[in-house]
Structures are given as C-alpha cells and as structure tokens.
Design a protein that fits this description.
Elements lengths: L8 H5 L3 H14 L5 H10 L2 H25 L1 H81 L3 H14 L7 H70 L4 H9 L8 H10 L5 H4 L5 H12 L3 H19 L8 H25 L6 H25 L3 H19 L6 H9 L1 H22 L6 E2 L2 H7 L16 E2 L5 H20 L8 H26 L4 H28 L4 H6 L7 H23 L18 H17 L5 H24 L6 E2 H20 L8 H10 L2 H11 L9 H7 L5 H10 E2 L7 H4 L7 H16 L1
Parallel strand pairs: 3-4
Antiparallel strand pairs: 1-2
Helix pairs in contact: 2-4, 3-4, 5-6, 6-7, 6-11, 7-8, 7-11, 7-13, 7-15, 11-12, 13-14, 13-15, 15-16, 15-17, 17-19, 17-20, 19-20, 19-21, 20-21, 20-23, 21-23, 23-25, 24-26, 25-27, 25-28, 26-27, 26-28, 30-32
Main location: cytoplasm
Subcellular location: Cytoplasm, Cytosol
Keywords: Cytoplasm, Exocytosis, Transport
C-alpha cells in the first residue's frame, strides 16, 4: 500500500493557483484517492494540458525515490538469489530418487492391478444381475396388485379396487424399475381414481333422488306415530274422566276398577309394527327405519380413500341444502290445506335422516351444519305459516294445520330439534283462530235462535233424552223420566249447548300440544267471550227485537235457568279437557254469563204480562166511584185479572223455575198495586166515596187470596212465600187501609207511618185525600144534617189534607 506523505517543501512554497492545483493532485495520488474530480475539472475548464504536465512532473519526482529504494535493498536481493541457486541443486537430486522408486513400484504391482481389474468387472456383473432380479420381483408385485384392482373394478368393488392402487402408488411408484412402467402407473392410477369418483358420484346422485321420496314417507310415518300416541293419550284421558265422573256419581267400585284397568292396555310395539309394514323388512336397522343410507356411507368411504373427504362433505352439505330449499317450494296452484301435510312431512323426514347421518355418519356432517340447516328450515316454515295463516278465514282450516304442525313439533323434538318458533307462530295466531271460531259460533247461534219456535221440546226416545239432556248435565233429577217426555226448555237449549261444547273442544284442541301446559285460563277467557258476547248478545238481541209473544217470552225465560246449569257444565267440561282437576275449577265462583239476557227475558215477559193486565185494567171504567153501596161481588176487572193470573200460573209452573215464577208473579202483583193506586190518582176519577174504597178493598182481598194460594209453589215456607207476594200489593193495601181508617190523620205520626204506611208517598196521599168524599157530603145533604155534630173521620181527613198541604 502507498504511504501517506506530507507535501514537500517545493509544493508548499508555491503560491500561485497552478502550484496549488499541482499540490492537491500530488496529495491525492500519494493518498490513493480518486482522481476523477481533477480530470473532470481540467476538462471542464478546457485545460487538460496542465493536468498532464502535473502528472508527468509527479512521475519524474517519484523516479528518484524508486532509485533510492533499490539502492538501499540491493545486497538483500543478491543474497536471496544465491540461496535459490543452492536449493535448485537439492531439488534435482530429490527428483532422480523419486523416479527410481516409481520404476520399482510399477514393476512389482503390475500383476496385482490386473487381478484387481478382473475382480471389479465380476462384481459389476453380479450387481447388475441382482438389480435385474429385484426389478423383476417388483414388477411381479406391481402386476399382481394391478390385476387385483382390475378384478375389483370388474366386480364394482370400488373400495377394494382403490386399496391396491393406493398400495402401488405408495410403495412402488417411486421405485419403478423402468421409466416406461413408471409412466404407465402415472397414467393409470389417476384414471382408476377418476373412474371410481365418477362411479360413486352417480350412485350418490341416485341416492339423493331416492332419499327425497323416502324422507317424505319417513316423515309421514313418524308424524303418524306421533298422532297415534296422542290419540292413545286422549283415549286414556277420556277413560280417566269417565272413571272420575262415575266416582262422582258414586257408582259401584267394580265399575270404577274396570274402567281404570283399561289404562294398562297400551300398544307399546306399534312403532316396530308400523315401520315393518312400511319398509317390508325388519332385518337391518336402516331398513327398519324405512330408508337406506348404505350408498351415502359408501360414497363417503370412497372419498375418504381418495383423500377427498372434505370436498365430499362440502358437496354433500351443499346438495342437501339445495334439496331442502326445493322442499320449501309451496305450490300456488294447490291450496295449502291440501298440501300442508306433504310439505311438513317432507321437512320432518329430511331432518330425521340428517339426525341419523349425524349420529352414524362418522363425521360426514357436523352438528353446526345440521343446526344451520334447521335454522334455515324453521325460518322458512315460520314464514310460510305466517303467510298462510294471514290468508285463512276459516277456523277449521287453521285448526287442521295447527294440529299437523304440533305433531311435527312433537316428532322433531324427540330428535333434539328446537321447535319453539313454530309454537310461537301458533300462539301468535291464537286470537285470530278464536275470533274466526267466535264468528262461526255467532252465525250458528243466530241460526239456532231463528229456527226455534220457542215451544217445549218433545223427546220420544231415551237416546234423545241422553243426547239433549244428559250429555250436557242439565237434568234436574237423576231419575230417567217416562217417554214421551216434554222438556221445560225449547230446542234452542241443546242446540246452543252443542255449539258451545264444540267451541270448547276446538279451543282446547288448538291450545293443547302447543308448548303451554296450563292453558285452562286462556280457554276460560274465550269461553267467557263466547257466552258473554255471542250467546248472551244473540239472546239479548232476540229479546229486544220485540217479535216475541207472551208464551215465547215465557219459554225464553224458562230456557235461561237451564242454560245456567249448562254453563256450569261448560266450565267443568273445559277444565276436564284442559287437564285441570274439577275441584280446582269448581272453586272459582263465577257469575252467570247470560245474566243480561236472562234479566232482559224476564223483563220482557213481565212487560208483556203487564201489557195484558193493562188491557184488563181498562175494565175499571165500569167502577162506580160514588156508589151508594159497595159492589157485592167485587169489581169486574179484578175477577178478569184473577182468572188470567190463575191461568198464567197453571201454564208457567210447568216450564218456569220456582224462583223465576216467583219474580214474575211479584212483578205482576206489583204492577196491579201500582195500577190500583194509579186509579185513585187518575184524572178521570174526580172524587170517590167510602163505598168505592170498600169495593177496591174487596179487589185487593182477591189478589191477596191469590198470593196466599201460590205459597205452596215455593220451596220456602208457605208464610214466607205468601208474604213475599203480598208485599207486592203493599202500597195499594196501605192506601186502602188509610182511606178506610177512622183516623187518617195518624199518617202524620212518624211512628205509625213507618209501621203502617211506609210505602205511601206524601204527594199521592194528598192528591187522593182531596178526592175522597164521605157519603154525608152528597148534594143537598146539608139540609138534613144542619146543626148535627161533624163526622170525626171527616174532621181527621180534613186535618190530614191541611197538614199535607202545609208540608208541600
């Protein structure tokens, strides 16, 4: 390397620019720096000659330094050349010695080398023969495996054919003895695998077509089993209710035990029988279940052998998903009511198959994949149900589809699928179903009322009595009557009972098997609506329409107590069907749901009877209010009214319950009392005397005697029954007693008034008292009684009138 030297004294002494450039160039050369900048600068300034001149000057300056160095090391060079010359002679002697040794060695080793060459040639021949034998044995094994693969392919045993092919590829492909054989294997192995894949793909496609039909049949069988199980449960509950009812009626223990013994009769082997009949064989498990999964598992196994199991899993999932999507198609040409069973059975069978594949398929499909398919399916079913339910306007159609959907839910829940969204749809349309059901019942109730003539129902046979009376528990006695039997109610009662009972059964059928265990309150709520809105409203409209006569109104009023007993049966029946113990249902005390129509019917009957009595009361025009003597046989109107009332009672007591008859008679007699008081207040009666009052008193005695005679009809004591009816005449009786009293002024005594005249009104008493005239007040009577003492009764009456005027 060049040593860095300091600039010489000559360079340092130069002061002009050229000398400075030379000095810098010299420093750069000595230090081994790049001279490019100096060259570019010289050419850029257009003075390359100065650069060349500087370089030549630097070279001349270095020549002298070289000469000095050579002079300093001359002696060392001389000594080194002498050493090399002495060494050269030694090397020549060594070379001659080596040449002699080599000639001796070659003469001694010649025969040995020829023997070695012969040995190596023999060993190479042996190695070639061994390789040939090994290659032959390898070819034999390869050909044996290929022959076995061809035999299995001819027999369509794809898995057994693929095993030797895999063995050839694994064990012999890399060790093929000849390139030709290797190329043949490289061509044939993929061809065999491709053939197996195509073959199994075709079988899988055929299975996909077959499993769709099998799934529909399987779904129908499974749902049919659920329906049969539900039917057995219903029959068992019916037998239990019959046993409970018989125990309530205190029948013999033998009868009860015979009914309970029926509960043990249960066909537990119906599943195997139904499946064996459907599949035709019970040998294999899949055969028993009605479908064959062997082609699917074979295809999966072949793809596992081919190393394509992941691709086959995805292929299977996508194809089944597409198949499920096609199952979702609802034909617009066929009513959903006709196609819903096939629709839901297809989906049920699909997921029963998937459940079996999940449990026995060896990982062909995962739980997450099945859950994803189920979520898609249940979302679609919910959408279809929402759409179809929104279009339906018939309760029976809704019920039919609901029943099948609930059976679908029961079936798939046994396989672990969540069916709550389906049940939520059913619960969501509960109100719509009952509204449609109420609409149907409203029409049926109106038709039943319009068809009834409101006459007592005649039953000629015992089965009619059982069908119209016992089946609704509206009988008043456990003794079967003689036939023909005339019932106290009209044909409307059993017709309405059948309508309500059908409503209860339909409502319970819709509410049951819907995921809600205690649904009796809901059934009771809709039953209250049916009775309170539909039945009560229809009867109320019938009563208020004004087209009923007395006999018809009486029959309607007679029907209402029977309907009250029927209502108790309705709620018991709803409780039984809902699985609620009767003792719990009977604890709830409820008001009669038809109370409005019952009260309206009794009010209508009473109005009609009052109108009839008003016709008879028009005979009061013949009453002589200023008669000289009281009528000997009473007034004519009273006799006519008594005859009518006796006729009324004889007819009404055959159909009206005692309490209703009592209320009606009480209202009629109250009306009679009001009419009698109204006679005294009438503008047509200007004045009356004591003889007229005596005649009215006789009329009242006739009515009171009638009330006493009716006491035997009531279940209470005779005195209480008679007093209740006589209380209806109390106002008229107190008025007549006041007018016949010798001291009418006692009316002003609070104690006496509260005890004897508490029903009388001040104004009425004042008006009537002014009209009362004593017989001594007749025209020209003052001439015969002049100077005589004034009548005390007249004096008391005048005082009463005066005091009443003061109070007013």
């Amino acid at each position: 390397m060049l040593r860095r030297v300091a600039p010489d004294s000559y360079s340092a002494a130069v002061g002009d620019p050229e000398r400075q450039d030379l000095h810098q160039l010299s420093s750069a050369i000595r230090n081994g720096e790049d001279l490019g900048p100096f060259v570019r600068k010289a050419f850029a300034s257009g003075r390359p000659e100065s650069l060349l001149h500087s370089l030549r000057h630097f070279a001349r300056s270095k020549e002298s330094e070289i000469e000095e160095v050579c002079k300093a090391h001359y002696q060392d060079f001389i000594r080194a050349v002498d050493d090399l010359r002495s060494l050269l002679s030694d090397v020549d002697s060594l070379k001659s010695a080596l040449s002699d040794s080599n000639a001796a060695l070659q003469s001694a080793a010649g025969p040995l080398l020829s023997s070695l060459d012969a040995y190596l040639e023999a060993r190479a021949i042996a190695r070639n023969l061994s390789a040939a034998l090994a290659a032959t044995r390898l070819c034999v094994r390869v050909l044996e495996l290929l022959a076995r693969a061809n035999a299995h392919l001819a027999a369509d045993d794809l898995y057994l054919a693929l095993r030797p092919v895999d063995a050839v590829e694994r064990d012999f492909l890399d060790a093929a003895p000849h390139p030709t054989l290797c190329r043949m294997l490289l061509r044939l192995i993929p061809a065999v695998r491709s053939h197996a894949e195509r073959k199994i793909a075709k079988e899988f496609s055929d299975w996909m077509v077959q499993i769709r039909v099998a799934s529909r049949h399987l779904g129908q069988v499974a749902i049919g089993r659920a329906s049969a199980a539900r039917q057995r449960e219903e029959e068992l509950r019916i037998r239990q209710r019959q046993a409970e009812e018989q125990s309530r009626l205190s029948l013999r223990d033998a009868n009860s035990s015979s009914i309970y013994s029926l509960e043990e009769d249960d066909d537990s082997d119906d599943l195997a029988a139904a499946i064996a009949a459907a599949s035709g064989s019970g040998a294999a498990v899949d055969g028993i279940l009605g479908f064959d999964l062997t082609p699917l598992y074979r295809a999966y196994h072949i793809h596992q052998t081919l190393g394509l199991q992941d691709r086959f899993k995805q292929y299977y999932f996508e194809n089944r998903k597409l198949q499920l999507t096609s199952d979702f198609q609802v034909s617009s040409m066929t009513p959903f009511l006709e196609s819903h069973q096939t629709f839901f059975a297809q989906i049920a069978g699909f997921f029963i198959v998937e459940d079996r594949i999940l449990r026995t398929g060896g990982g062909l499909i995962s739980r997450s994949d099945v859950d994803a398919l189920w979520e898609t399916a249940i979302a679609k079913m919910v959408s279809v149900l929402e759409d179809q339910f929104s279009r339906m306007q018939t309760a029976n159609h809704l019920l039919l589809i609901k029943d099948y959907v609930s059976l679908l839910g029961v079936t798939l829940r046994r396989y672990g699928y969540t069916v709550d969204p389906l049940l939520d749809v059913l619960s969501k349309h509960r109100d719509k179903y009952h509204d449609l059901l109420l609409s149907d019942c409203r029409r049926q109730v109106s038709e039943a009322l319009a068809a009834d003539k409101f006459e007592q129902m005649l039953m000629k046979k015992e089965y009619e009595y059982s069908m119209n009376v016992l089946s609704f528990q509206i009988q008043t006695s456990d003794i079967t009557p003689a036939f023909p039997y005339v019932a106290p109610f009209s044909s409307t009662v059993p017709d309405l009972c059948r309508i309500v009972r059908s409503f209860i059964e339909d409502s319970v059928s819709f509410m049951s098997h819907g995921g809600q265990l205690d649904f009796y309150p809901i059934v009771k709520k809709y039953l209250d609506r049916l009775l309170g809105e539909v039945v009560d409203g229809a009867i109320l409209r019938l009563v208020e329409a004004g087209g009923l006569g007395v006999s018809q109104a009486m029959q309607v009023a007679a029907n209402m107590p029977v309907m009250e007993r029927a209502c108790d049966f309705f709620f018991r029946h709803a409780a039984q069907l809902s699985g609620i113990p009767l003792r719990i249902a009977e604890r709830e005390r409820r008001e009669f749901p038809l109370k409005r129509s019952r009260d309206a019917a009794e009010e209508l009957l009473l109005r009609l009877l009052q109108a009839k009595l008003d016709d008879f009361m028009m005979l009061t025009d013949t009453v002589s209010w200023m008669a000289d003597d009281p009528p000997p046989n009473g007034n004519e109107y009273a006799n006519e009214v008594i005859i009518y009332l006796e006729t009324l009672v004889s007819t009404a007591q055959q159909i009206l319950p005692i309490q209703v008859l009592r209320r009606v008679l009480h209202g009629v007699l109250t009306h009679v009392s009001e009419k009698i008081v109204g006679l005294f207040l009438s503008d047509s009666v200007k004045r009356f005397n004591a003889n007229a009052v005596t005649g009215i008193d006789g009329d009242l005695r006739l009515f009171e005697s009638f009330a006493d005679n009716q006491s035997q009809l009531f279940g209470d004591t005779e005195d209480s029954g008679a007093n209740e009816l006589k209380m209806a005449l109390l106002e008229a009786r107190q008025l007549v007693n006041l007018l016949m009293s010798n001291h009418p002024e006692n009316f002003l005594n609070p104690v006496i008034r509260e005890k004897s005249y508490n029903k009388l009104d001040y104004k009425k008493v004042a008006t009537i008292s002014e009209k009362f005239r004593d017989p001594s007040d007749r025209l020209f009577s003052t001439f015969g009684t002049r100077g005589s003492k004034q009548n005390p009764k007249k004096k008391s009456l005048d005082a009463l009138i005066k005091r009443l005027k003061d109070v007013s």
